[in-house]
Q: What sequence folds into this?
């Protein structure tokens, strides 16, 4: 069994990563999370791009654990905000990981933005780093529009205000399987799976 670390401190995101990797049926891979290992310090995410942040998180995890490591840096890019919150999505309200405050602030900022200009995209960049080995970075995008009120209880983060193109439900109203099949995270991991099979 080869061990692979999913290096995320966000329990909901980690759950999605675990679920998607499990669905890919990678025989011979044992997936571990940060909660299965001794703690190591969480470096600040200071990169200007999702790619830089994902690579930094995966490299830190490799340095601390010696395990092949996967890290996800993701967020929402809003057209009317010129692509923000972007890499600041997790701390848009000033408090890291406060999903409700982040979502409320974003909705307030967009209150005067008309329906035809409420486009947004979820972006997920995943870095896979092997000790003394190659580094891979993949990216998935999921395009849609933003609602005016939150709807739905599934998912996390900005899911209750994001309606993916081709649907009328928010991504918090999709089943987990529906979200995985279409999401930025599902798309990125699909691109990574061939590299995981090579391990
Ligand atoms: O860095 P780690 O430890 O993985 O955990 P994190 O929560 O800090 O993760 P990010 O730095 O990548 O920030 C991602 C933020 O973007 C949002 N986000 C990412 N993927 C999302 C999704 O599938 N649905 C809703 N919101 C999402 C969510 O608000 C997250 O807090
Ligand atoms: Mg983070």
A:
């Amino acid at each position: 069994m080869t061990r692979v670390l999913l290096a995320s401190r966000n329990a909901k995101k980690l759950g999605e990563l675990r679920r998607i990797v499990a669905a890919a049926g990678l025989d011979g891979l044992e997936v571990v999370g940060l909660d299965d290992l001794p703690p190591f310090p969480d470096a600040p995410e200071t990169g200007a791009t999702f790619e830089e942040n994902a690579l930094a998180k995966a490299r830190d995890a490799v340095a601390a654990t010696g395990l092949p490591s996967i890290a996800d840096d993701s967020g929402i890019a809003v057209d009317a905000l010129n692509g923000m919150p972007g890499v600041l999505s997790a701390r848009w309200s000033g408090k890291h990981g406060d999903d409700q405050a982040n979502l409320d602030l974003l909705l307030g900022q967009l209150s005067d933005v008309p329906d035809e200009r409420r486009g947004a995209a979820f972006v997920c960049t995943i870095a896979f780093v092997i000790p003394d080995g190659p580094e891979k970075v993949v990216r998935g995008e999921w395009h849609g529009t933003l609602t005016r009120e939150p709807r739905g209880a599934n998912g996390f983060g900005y899911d209750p205000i994001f309606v993916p193109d081709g649907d009328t439900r928010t991504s918090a109203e999709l089943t987990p399987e529906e979200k995985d099949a279409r999401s930025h995270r599902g798309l990125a991991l699909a691109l990574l799976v061939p590299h995981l099979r090579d391990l």
